Amino acid sequence: MNLLKHFAADSVRHVQALGLLQGGRFATRILGERHPSSGDLLPWQIRTLESLQSVICAGDSDDLPTPDECGALEATLGFMRGMPTPTVERMSALLALFEAAPLAMGPVRVRFSALDPAQQNAFLESWPDSRLPQQRAAFHAIKTMCMMGYWTRPSTWGPIGYDIKSNPGVPDHLREGI
Q1: How many whole angstroms separate alpha carbon 170 and alpha carbon 97?
Q2: How far apart are CA 153 and CA 45, in angstroms?
Q3: Pick from 134, 133, 55, 128: which is nearest to 93 by CA?
Q4: Strand, coil or helix: what is 107?
Q5: Tens-digit pLDDT profile for residues 37-51
Q6: Residue 1 — very low, low, confident or very high, per pLDDT cuts 50/70/90?
Q7: Which of 44, 63, 106, 136 could form an SS bridge with 159, CB 3.0 to 4.6 Å?
Q8: What angle do CA 147, 33, 121 make, to 5 degrees?
Q9: Of 137, 57, 123, nearest to 93 (Cα)?
């Protein structure tokens, strides 16, 4: 096994042994960043979330808005502000792990947010099918967070044929003004 592969495998095992919160703190130190002191995200974590959301929520249709166009990041951050502090701390740790992962796992040794969109997409492709259940779980948690912010934006509904006004499961007071 070459040294680079050994380092990547060793880093993954180290983070697994630490657990999510300690792994996030370890990743934050690797990045040379400050760990958030409260349940709020720091600017570098928001950039990571924005990068992840841009890749994960990239539409396959020109009719769909980009996450930036529909305000998905702001929606996601709004959801996070309403979450219990321990949940936000876990999401914060996941963002640190995703930002540091390319440094440890390659093939390009830079932060996730510094990769171009094609490299970000290529890097994330293996995560949902990883042989490591923790890696799959991390991807699905981030994907859920990103998608929640994206698909709750009204500008995403029309292109997929969703009409809140005709949905019988939506209370009348939520249909007004949309």
Answers
A1: 37
A2: 22
A3: 134
A4: coil
A5: 777 899 999 999 999
A6: very low
A7: 63
A8: 35
A9: 137
